[in-house]
Amino acid sequence: MIYLDYAATTPVDSRVFDAMLPYFRESFGNPSSTHRYGQKAEAAVEAARETVAAILHCRPDEVIFTSCGSESDNLALRGVALARREQTGARRILTARAEHHAVSKTAERLEKEDGFRVEWLEVDEFGMVRPEAVEKAISKDTALVSVMYSNNEIGTVNPIHQIAEVCRKQGVPLHTDAVQAAAYLPVDVDMLGVDLLSLGAHKFYGPKGIGALYIRKGTPIQPVLTGGGQEFGLRAGTHNVPLIVGLAEALRLAEVEREERAARLRPMRDRIIGAVLEEIPDSRLTGHPEQRVPNHTSFVFKDVDGNLLLNLLDGAGFACSSGSACKTGNPEPSEVITSLGLSREWALGSLRVTLGLGTTPGDVEAFLKALPGLVQKARSL
Amino acid sequence: MPKVVIAMSGGVDSSVAAALLKQQGYDVIGMMLRLWSEPGKEDSNRCCTPDSMAQARRVAAKLDIPFYAIDAKEVFRKTVVDYFLEGYARAETPNPCLVCNRHIRWEFLFSHAKAMGADFMATGHYVRVVKDEFGRMKLLKGIDPAKDQSYVLHVLTQEKLTQALFPVGDYPKTEIRAIAEKFGLAVAKRPDSQDLCFLAGDDYRNFLQRNAPHINQPGKIVSREGRVLGEHRGLANYTIGQRKGLNLASSVPLYVLQKNATENVLVVGAAEELGTLELLAVNVNWTGGEIPTGPFHAMVKSRYTARETPGLVTPLDNGTKVTVRFDLPQRDITPGQAAVFYDGDQVLGGGIIRYSS
Questions:
Q1: Any idea which architecture A14-256 has in CATH?
Q2: In this predicted complex, what is the ipTM?
Q3: Which of A314, A331, A381 lies at the smallest CB-CB distance from B115?
Q4: What is the CATH number of domain B3-124+166-199?
Q5: Which residue has the higher pLDDT, A119 or B190?
Q6: What's the DSSP call for residue B191?
């Protein structure tokens, strides 16, 4: 099998794995305990926080550890929306249908349960949120803007810095879901100008079940998960020490090796995009041709059932994914694919091929050799 | 290693079938069809609820075989549901499971299996296939007479039978349950049911009312002589031989004799008028691979649950149609159901009953 679904998840880097190991059995203490077991665990958590903060270019107390990227998104949206409404009365949330469900579904819940009003930002044909669209929609009544750094399904990188400028002018906090981007794009929050930024470790060779949220000092926010006073009172629950250590080490490695990783993958990415568009009739790239993550390719094929193509690919030994609810065989296109304005005969046939540390040029060639025939097979069924 | 796709449902039969194939050394792939349900009723479709799909996935994981869900919503609606509605529009009692087996399982799913490189397709049906000395495939009843499903599989052609595997047909149901336990398969403990999957537990009359109200309009109830006796609530509400629910005042009990779609008339009569000696079946498939040249005697089953009864089968139009003349009058021969001909355990063929007289 050749794994080409690194945007879904990545294997844990062996260096990350080694860094985590002592915190399962030897230094197993609870960071909240006063004794030396606790102190040792606490030291590990705080060291991890400093590592993450250094990479994000922020203060350590602006970093909160959570259980995953989705939890970070939830805390950012709920926490800020509710706190901002309490402070200023703002009741609008500005986000896009092309966001990850962790953001869009959370915004919908806030609308349904808490009386917020969600305004859905237009995206262009590449799935990109234009700063002008934000400028047009934002107002004093906007509690929060949330725009993802890069899109998980179609790889488009949003102009976060320019959007941040628009938000700053209005004094509205900007959240960005950087879960997909962090593996390959700089996550310097000052350069980006964001007030909140979500991370999930398993997308950059860290373990599953651990995430982080950057919260700029002074951003109004209230906790979602209440209980003990961990994480500056913003996220109750005993620290998951080994996974926190794993997240920090994985992010550190991603930062140190960022250029090298991207430089190795980019030519393979472009090889796939070029070959697919040339060799497969009625194929289109989804997402932006240039403003995209270096490991990410995504396509739509006319008159192809995307799930069927995935099954055929799996049968032929290639693990890829698509832009749909997939596992149950439901062919309905995702909101992301739908928001690109494609007609149905195109939108049903999406394919996402994402590369990673384990990908070799040989893998890419084997994939490119197999794909055209499988697309044709899928069309003929 | 030959590759086989097993059509899974999350139930015990197809799960054990998968386990047996794996044990026999096949390279096994699990597939499950995602069928059509009325909008909003997806959770109650008997064959493919999210629950049963999760169950099938668990079984596949336990057996360490790949599992793929195949979307068949559109083709199922167009092929099976439309057939069902058209059948009722002709005042027949259609058997959509036959169409599903023929077109959805053994054409649509089969083509997906072939596309995955499969040499065989298997299902959890209680039937057996053996090759005779001339190289012909014989479709036989399952070992367990209470579970035999050969009636619905008479639609299989020789070409399909050479590529079909039915691992559970050699076992009684009790043993299948024991094997499931032995393999540690936590399969869905849903009751065996002959309800149609897309009715989602609802009555078919409500389904017709929602999806094709025009085909079930009230009309006249008449005697054989054409005398008007009352009014019916739509022909789809009645089956041949039915006595209850006619709401007619009469000196003798009256039974449904005939449903006439063109005039939207329900013909009733006394018990002695009931019963037919002959039927015509169309769309005949000669499961045994041999088109008979002349009339022959066979045991005939005219409903999934009916008992077999002797009759003389006469092929017409190069075997695409047959007439069956029963030795004794039959009371519930129902157009739309299949008549299937047996020689002992072997299925010789079968077709859809068009009319009886």
A1: 3-Layer(aba) Sandwich (3.40)
A2: 0.79
A3: A381
A4: 3.40.50.620
A5: A119
A6: P
